[in-house]
Design a protein that fits this description.
This protein has about 450 residues and is mainly beta. It has 3 helices and 31 strands. It has helices at about 5-15, 380-390, 415-425; strands at about 20, 25, 35-40, 45-50, 50-65, 70-75, 75-85, 90-100, 105-120, 130-135, 135-150, 150-160, 165-170, 175-180, 185-190, 200-205, 210-225, 230, 235-240, 245-250, 250-255, 265-270, 275-280, 285-290, 290-300, 300-305, 310-315, 325-330, 340, 350-355, 360-365. The strands form 5 sheets. Strands 3, 4, 7, 8, 9, 10, 11, 15, 16, 19 and 23 form an 11-stranded antiparallel β-sheet that branches. The protein is elongated and about 75 Å long. Keywords: Membrane, Transmembrane, Transmembrane helix.
Length: about 450
């Protein structure tokens, strides 16, 4: 190896973190997450044979990516990953590696990558394109490379009906680029044998090796899984992936609820944080005119029509676990999201929304002094928020795209060599597989 190159790489790896300045006013230490969508049910486990993520990209700009040490990794490269666990034993990744060719012409080169991890040990069925890392089997495969221009409708999918198929769609045209033997069904919910959540995630991140990319864009995303012969939208979604170590900085994710039966994620310029996309509680606005209560239900300013609203009255024992059990009246909001109730002779009551589709329950209490009495009324939203607050995002799997020689617009470094040196120098090739994970 050229001595000058070796010295440059060593110095790059040893640079103090405070001396590294990133694009988008980013500095090492700022939080970054695998950004997009994920589905992880807390109370049940779902088995399915088909998962898919779809993105509609209006604009996209990919900047520098960095290793966790702060060392510069590549420029103009990012990964879009569809990841799912198979029976809690295999981690399947269908990955599109985006390389920015010409920002002005909005042209990108996409290389398809597969990472399949055997979390229980080396692969015995697969013979080609496999390696072993710390006793775990890793299948590495590079698929086709092609160019695209924006705007772009792009999907990643995996099919485990009779075998394990990896594929993608470009503007509605479908391609299957690799077929492997059958390994089982995709499991959504519960923990894998390594203790990681079996989530379904469709996220942007750095181009492998646990890297972090600075990027910006305008796009929308959806994830689906097959249930009873139909592709369905998950009942809940986070703005971050739970298993992936690659992360993105410069984009934020929020939900669009114009159609509450078909919500989707919006990705735009900003800073992402772990949040619940849905279900979320809508706003209940109550205006009083004596015993007449005018109620308006809305989400992000959009009125919610034809939604059930209940008036709950207290039970005989206010200290019971559920102090409000009697339903006095039920009605449905009009096209403006409004409804009127008459609560004459009732000083204690709750106006209650039980939730619907991707909306969580919500309520308005007649007296602030009664708030402690309804603390037991917990919504799915509360449970998801508490889960995110306690989740340790350091437990994650670093993708390995070592067969790819990364391209760059202006940095002339052998990135494959840098990947290996960086991985061994800072121990991040598979940053989270260290024996057993404990939460």
């Amino acid at each position: 190896m050229n001595s000058l190159l070796a010295l440059s790489l060593i110095l790059l790896l040893l640079l103090p973190l405070s001396s590294i300045s990133l694009d988008h006013s980013f500095t090492i230490g700022d939080p970054a997450y695998p950004s997009g969508m994920s589905f992880f049910p807390l109370t049940n486990v779902i088995y399915t044979t088909y998962v898919m993520g779809t993105v509609n990209i209006t604009s996209l700009n990919i900047g520098n990516s960095y290793l966790s040490s702060g060392a510069l990794f590549t420029k103009g490269n990012a990964s879009l990953q569809l990841n799912a666990m198979i029976d809690g034993k295999y981690w399947a990744q269908d990955v599109a590696l985006f390389h920015e060719v010409n920002n002005k012409k909005e042209e990108f080169e996409i290389t398809m990558i597969i990472n399949l991890w055997n979390l229980s040990g080396p692969f015995k069925i697969l013979k080609n394109n496999v390696t072993t890392y710390q006793g775990l089997g890793v299948y590495l495969y590079q698929g086709p490379t092609f160019n695209v221009t924006l705007p772009l409708n792009f999907s990643l999918f995996m099919n485990a009906t009779n075998s394990l198929e990896f594929g993608y769609c470009i503007n509605g045209k479908k391609y299957v680029y690799q077929i492997l033997p059958y390994f089982g069904k995709f499991q959504i919910g519960g923990l894998s044998i390594l203790g990681l959540p079996n989530d379904l995630e469709f996220v942007w991140g750095g181009p492998g090796c646990g890297s972090e990319v600075c990027m910006s864009g305008e796009m929308s995303e959806e994830i689906y899984y097959l249930q009873q012969g139909k592709l369905v939208i998950p009942s809940s979604a986070f703005s971050v992936g739970l298993d992936t170590a690659e992360s993105a900085y410069g984009i934020k994710v929020f939900a669009n609820f114009r159609n509450i039966t078909s919500p989707f994620a919006c990705v735009t310029k900003g800073i992402n944080s772990p949040s619940v996309l849905w279900p979320v509680p809508p706003s209940i606005i109550v205006q009083s005119n004596g015993s007449i209560k005018h109620v308006k239900l809305c989400i992000n300013g959009f009125p919610l029509s034809n939604q059930e609203i209940e008036v709950l009255l207290p039970s005989a024992n206010l200290s019971s676990p559920i102090p409000f059990t009697t339903v006095k009246e039920i009605g449905y909001t009009n096209n403006d999201g409004e409804i009127t109730f008459n609560v004459s002779n009732q000083s204690l009551y709750i106006i209650y929304y039980p939730g619907n589709y991707t909306l969580s329950s919500a309520y308005d209490i007649s007296s602030p002094l009664l708030s402690h009495l309804v603390s037991s009324i917990k919504s799915a939203y509360d449970s998801l928020v508490n889960f995110l607050k306690s989740y340790n995002f350091k437990h994650a799997l670093s993708s390995s795209f070592s067969r790819i020689k990364y391209k760059s617009q202006s940095i002339n470094i052998d990135y494959l060599l840098l990947e290996y040196i960086g991985a061994f120098a800072v121990g991040i090739l598979v940053s989270a597989i260290l024996a057993k994970y404990k939460f």
